[in-house]
Write a structure and sequence with these properties.
This protein is α/β, with parallel strands linked by helices. Helix content is 38%, strand content 20%. An eight-stranded parallel β-sheet has the order 1-2-3-4-5-6-7-8. Helix 6 crosses helix 7. It is globular and about 50 Å long.
Length: 214
């Protein structure tokens, strides 16, 4: 069986795990043998160096090793200037559509605003790091987008149990983000929560992954 980790910063090699490594800087570095996503995180936007950073993304995102654009998005908790966040997010959306590559979304307290920006987007969209009540993420799957769950499934709070159980399994993906958790443990926990055989989860997530990263 193959396990898929759609968003990670830490990934020990394994023959049965496909990792997508997130790159938010050093976009021109060697990508040989890697599969990555590439984007400007709203926490780290630097208006003074933005043009240079963006040129590097545009130049390097065309590479075959770059499977997705992001993470990118909107965050109402960070101090980053809101108009700057919006402007850069819109650039990522345009680039993803131009290259026909999926978008990986960072969204903090801005679901309505992010979904408004994504209206009409034709490429697959993944909202990563889901740790929210179902009322917030229901509009995401209603719009046809995907939800990526990570460590929130390992010791889940009641509202996460409710969210994950309500999430359509054909819109679910998994990730480890910046933790050193084994992605297989997240699959195991997901199977327990859904009360399904782990193999069924693995096969469905593989189908989802191939639908997104075709």
């Amino acid at each position: 069986m193959m396990y898929y980790n759609v968003h990670t910063h830490y990934h020990p090699p394994a023959n049965d795990v496909l990792h997508i490594e997130n790159r938010y800087k050093d976009f021109a570095s060697d990508l040989t043998g890697r599969k990555v996503s590439m984007g400007l995180h709203p926490w780290y936007l630097d208006a003074q160096n933005l043009d240079e950073q963006w040129e590097s993304i545009v130049e390097n995102a065309k590479k075959a090793e770059v499977l997705a654009i992001g993470e990118c998005g909107l965050d109402k908790v960070t101090n980053t200037d809101w108009p700057l966040q919006l402007s850069v997010f819109r650039q990522h959306i345009l680039l993803a559509q131009e290259l026909d590559k999926p978008l990986i979304i960072h969204c903090v307290r801005a679901f309505g605003e992010v979904l408004a920006e994504l209206k009409g987007v034709k490429v697959p969209v993944i909202f990563h790091g889901i740790n929210n009540k179902i009322s917030l993420v229901q509009p995401v799957t209603d719009a046809g987008h995907y939800l990526s769950f990570g460590k929130s499934l390992l010791n889940p709070k009641d509202y996460i149990l409710h969210t994950f159980n309500a999430a359509p399994l054909d819109k679910v993906l998994f990730e480890t983000d910046d933790s050193d958790i084994d992605i297989r443990e997240i699959y195991k926990s997901a199977a327990r929560i859904k009360n399904l055989p782990e193999k069924e989860i693995v096969l469905q997530v593989e189908k989802n992954f191939l639908n997104v990263f075709h």
